[in-house]
Automatic annotation (TrEMBL):
<protein>
    <submittedName>
        <fullName>Uncharacterized protein</fullName>
    </submittedName>
</protein>
Length: 106
């Protein structure tokens, strides 16, 4: 069973689109912030999947909301994509903040 399906089964309240975005969040940060490659990246993705699956709805919801509303919210008032360099908060800070939300939730 793939990671998307595992998380979806553990949290059926999430849409497949939301699950993919949560997994993509971790993959991007693992590659770009932590500079993980191949085996370490694979292990990191497995550990992240287990962590997400282990969280209750109450614990996971603030993380998912942050990832969807802040981490990915790169559009202006007209729905146009905002360039990363024009964003108020840098990618690394958004990634770290989402990680902190996830790790501190019980």
């Amino acid at each position: 069973m793939d990671r998307t399906q595992q998380i979806k089964e553990a949290h059926p309240w999430l849409s497949y689109d939301e699950v993919v975005k949560v997994l993509l969040y971790h993959h991007q940060g693992s590659m770009w912030v932590q500079n993980l490659q191949r085996d370490k990246l694979e292990r990191s993705m497995e550990a992240f999947t287990k962590l997400v699956k282990s969280k209750s709805i109450k614990a996971l919801k603030p993380f998912v909301e942050y990832v969807l509303d802040v981490y990915y919210n790169g559009v202006d008032e007209y729905g146009n994509q905002i360039e990363e360099s024009s964003r108020e908060e840098p990618f690394e800070r958004r990634w770290d903040k989402a990680r902190a939300i996830l790790l501190k939730s019980k």
